[in-house]
Amino acid sequence: MKRVAILISGGGSNMVKLAESMTGDHPARPVLVLSNDPKAGGLDKARTMGIPAQAVDHRRFEDRPGFETALKDQLIAASPDIICLAGFMRVLTPGFVKHWQGRMLNIHPSLLPKYRGLHTHKRAIESGDAEHGCTVHEVTAELDDGPVLGQARVPIMAKDTVQTLTARVLVQEHILYPTVLRRFAAGDRTPVFLS
Ligand code: GAR
């Protein structure tokens, strides 16, 4: 059984969907939820689901390497086989990423390689794109880069606001990430394309 740690920064809706999916004959189980923000709503949701959940508050550290050392200590104590970034909003240094490379996944709200970074929904609307979506990829040293493991697409409607488009993409994130994780945990890295 593969051990999965999930890193969050906020409400953790993707974390909940991932954790809920890991039951029955699924080849993985959640062993830890970590947040860089002690106020992240996802921490209590994880505890309610019986998953150990802790915060490593990045504001308590003078620099990024200090924060990452504390994060790494917590992760190593849980000995995860796979780490899922699920709305984790801190940029990780190449050294940290290298330690977990090939074992760390991220979900990003765009059809990568389009719109790396922040404000992806706004940028897609302002560019007049006809479609948008989400990507699950392996994490490498470059931000929002690395081999694509799955994508899901949604249409952009004429009346869309950032909020309506965010909600439409999130529905797909909740399907895509558990789908990719299940395949990845079973050793399948073939990309999956939904809708
Ligand atoms: C999700 O939309 C995820 O794709 C995005 O943050 C949201 C977290 O929501 N991640 C990024 O933007 C990472 N660059 P959640 O906390 O409800 O899962």
Automatic annotation (TrEMBL):
Transcription regulation among keywords: no
Keyword Transferase: yes
Enzyme Commission no: 2.1.2.2
Domain spans labelled Formyl transferase N-terminal: 2-181
Alphabetical list of CDD domains matching this protein: FMT_core_GART (cd08645)
Residues the record lists as binding N(1)-(5-phospho-beta-D-ribosyl)glycinamide: G12, S13, N14
Catalytic-site annotation from UniProt: H108 (proton donor)
SUPFAM superfamilies, sorted: Formyltransferase
Residues the entry annotates as binding (6R)-10-formyltetrahydrofolate: R64, N106
GO MF terms held by the record: phosphoribosylglycinamide formyltransferase activity
Pathway where this protein functions: Purine metabolism; IMP biosynthesis via de novo pathway; N(2)-formyl-N(1)-(5-phospho-D-ribosyl)glycinamide from N(1)-(5-phospho-D-ribosyl)glycinamide (10-formyl THF route): step 1/1
Function (record text): Catalyzes the transfer of a formyl group from 10-formyltetrahydrofolate to 5-phospho-ribosyl-glycinamide (GAR), producing 5-phospho-ribosyl-N-formylglycinamide (FGAR) and tetrahydrofolate.
This protein's name: Phosphoribosylglycinamide formyltransferase
